[in-house]
């Protein structure tokens, strides 16, 4: 999807700019932080929605 918008040249330019702005040592930290945030978000979604809607309705009565 991103490749369709920017093309391959645009993606390479974005990667180079990010590497220059954050530095090579900060990119793994940034990736770890994004992965951790994604995992926490998915964990919150799983906890907020019931696994079995029928059981949830029966339990609430």
Oligomer: single chain
Structure classification: mainly alpha
Instruction: Describe the sheet with the most strands.
Output: none
Q: What is the rounded distance between the termini?
A: 46 Å
Q: Radius of gyration from the CA trace?
A: 20 Å
List low-pLDDT spans: none
Tally of strands: 0
Give descriptors for this structure.
single chain, 61 residues, mainly alpha, 3 helices, 85% helix
Give the gist of this structure:
The chain has 61 residues and is mostly helical.
Describe this structure in words.
- The longest helix is centred in the middle third of the chain and has 23 residues, at 26-48.
- This protein has one domain (2-60).
- The chain contains 3 helices and no strands.
- It is elongated and about 45 Å long.
- It has helices at 2-22, 26-48, 53-60.
- With 61 residues, the protein is mostly helical.
- The termini are far apart.
Topology (SSEs and partners):
Layout: H1 2-22, H2 26-48, H3 53-60
